[in-house]
Amino acid sequence: MVRHVKPYPTDGIKTKQAILLKEGNEFKAVQRIAPDYHQADVRVEVLDDERIRLHETMAATLPDGVKVQVPTVMLWTFKGGKIVEMLVDYNLDDAKRFHALIKAAGFAIPEHAG
Q1: Which residues touch 13 (CB under 8 Å, ≥6 apart)?
Q2: Nearest-CA neighbor of 30 among 107, 89, 97, 110?
Q3: In the predicted structure, residue 114 carries a pLDDT above the cut 60
Q4: What is the Cα–Cα distance from 64 to 80, expressed in whole angstroms?
Q5: Is the whole model's pTM more than 0.85, yes or no?
Q6: DSSP 14
Q7: Integer angstrom CA distances of residue 59 from 11, 19, 42, 51
Q8: Dihedral in degrees, nearest 10, Cα atoms 48, 12, 105, 73
Q9: If you ran DSSP here, which 8-state letter would residue 13 be given?
Q10: Quick check: 1 pLDDT over 60?
């Protein structure tokens, strides 16, 4: 289950294949626009048998030369070996320029997400 605090049209139950395809396509598309796009400062905490917390900073140089860094925290919940929930937390003001990059790559970002 992918769920945003303010829902995205794409939220809901996803298969492993759908998640891998979507994430892989998005990553490749963004790298075509910002070749240095990467996740930095990645750290994973195992909270218990069912939850992990992923800390990362999404980083890229936008086509106009502006360097963008978006610290992000994701909480993943697993049950029966499956992802049942993924919550993502980041500062919207930090993410707005990055969302513009994702939009330029052809991916939808809901209006309330910047």
Answers
A1: 1
A2: 107
A3: no
A4: 45
A5: no
A6: -
A7: 24, 21, 11, 25
A8: -20
A9: -
A10: no
Dist CA 13 CA 56 (whole Å): 24
pLDDT tens track for 55-90: 999 899 988 898 889 899 999 898 888 888 888 888
Q: Which amino acid, 88?
A: V
Q: Give dist(CA 13, CA 87) in Å, integer.
A: 13
- Give pLDDT tens digits for 25-45: 888 888 888 899 899 999 999
Please count the other Cβ atoms lying within 10 Å of the Cβ belonging to residue 58. 20
Burial of residue 42 (number of CB atoms within 10 Å: 0-12, 13-18, 19+): exposed
The one-character DSSP state at 102 is H
